Each structure stands twice: as structure tokens, then as C-alpha cells.
Amino acid sequence: xxxxxxxxxxxxxxxxxxxxxxxxxxxxxxxxxxxxxxxxxxxxxxxxxxxxxxxxxxxxxxxxxxxxxxxxxxxxxxxxxxxxxxxxxxxxxxxxxxxxxxxxxxxxxxxxxxxxxxxxxxxxxxxxxxxxxxxxxxxxxxxxxxxxxxxxxxxxxxxxxxxxxxxxxxxxxxxxxxxxxxxxxxxxxxxxxxxxxxxx
Length: 200
What we know:
Elements: E1 3-6, E2 12-15, E3 18-19, H1 25-35, E4 42-43, H2 44-51, H3 60-75, E5 83-86, E6 89-92, H4 100-116, H5 120-132, H6 145-174
Antiparallel strand pairs: 1-2, 2-3, 4-6, 5-6
Helix pairs in contact: 1-3, 4-5, 4-6, 5-6
């Protein structure tokens, strides 16, 4: 079964078309911490530092194991294995069709390639799709400022580059007529939308 994890705005998690509830902020922070380094092992110590904002309590490793167990239970039997135990910690397995952070990276990179190649319509479409993935303030509802401090500057810079590239592409498409891209246009967590991108 496929999943969708959205972090470019309020936390979203779906299994197929079914929304999955992860009510505990630290469970959401755990999943987000694994997602920003998807496919890589994140040590238990690093996860504890993130989940407790730099002040993990005594016995944090054991508490972390309990959070992992509860998170797997929330994911359900078909998705629980996506959170894998790998020494010295854990990793999340997901593709760009399942994680908005990966989808955003992929679309931004593809849009930049198209723009450099002079293919303005393709660049505009790809960068528009990338910008539509944003549906609010990233990582804001996790109760984890340390993770936001680590990730938000890079995401903000990448988003600005996508806006600038989209405007350049629109100039090419429209023959010099400048379109105004309005930031923050919600996309309701759509998976890799095929539309034209942010409202202009």
C-alpha cells in the first residue's frame, strides 16, 4: 500500500485515501525527523535530541523505542515496516510519490534543468507543481523547534529559487509579460499535482 506524508504545511499522513491519525506531537516529530533524512539511518541519539529539543530526559533511548512502536502501530500493518530499525537508530523508507519533501526536490531539480535548457513551458509546469505542494508553514505543528531550525532555512531558500525560476519561465512563455506568483497558495495535500502550479 502506498502512503503520503506531507510536511510542507500542517502534518498530513495517509495510507491510500485514508487519513492516519498521529495525535502525539513527539510521534509526528519522530516521523518528520526520519522523513527529512529519508532513506538514511538517523541515530537514536540524534532523534532524541530532535524530539526533546536538545534536552532528552534520562532513559530517552527506551522512551524512543516506545514512540517507534506506537508510530508503527499508527501506520498500520501494511506500512509499519517503512520505519525500519537499523543500527544505530532508524530509517524511513519512502519514494518521491509518497513524501512531499522528496517530490518538491525532484520537481525543483527537473524544473531547473528544463529552464537551463530553454524549455520555458516545461519549466513553468514543473516549478508550478513544486510550489503547489506547499500548503502552509512547514513542520509548524510538531512541537519541535530544533527540527525547524535545521530544515526550514534550506526549504525556504529552495522555495524562493522555485518562485524565481517560475517567474523566469513565465516570462519566456508569455513573451515578456510578467506573471505575479502569490506565495502560500494551499494545495490541500495533493499528490504530485498535474496542474499549472501556483495561482498567478
